[in-house]
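Question (not urgent): is this output format expected?
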Amino acid sequence: MQRIGASEPTSSLIVGLSVTVLVGGPHMYSTFLRTAMEPRFRSRYGRLTYLPLVVMPTVVTLGALQNLLLLLSGYEWIRVPSPGGRGTG
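Got this back:
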């Protein structure tokens, strides 16, 4: 990927996300659906069976927001002047 101009961290991110989307996501949802579709499991746990449909998107959204906030707060740290009075921003 570096041949097409992507840096090493960007290449790593692309590979990690690709594996997550192509392998992790389908595996997680197929396991959940197989469990949720079993009548004995649904009768035993009721509404709790469908809780992952709410929890998983919420966790992903909060994680994305947290990373965005961390990224934006990093820009504020860059602008803080150094003790010698010469700031970088």
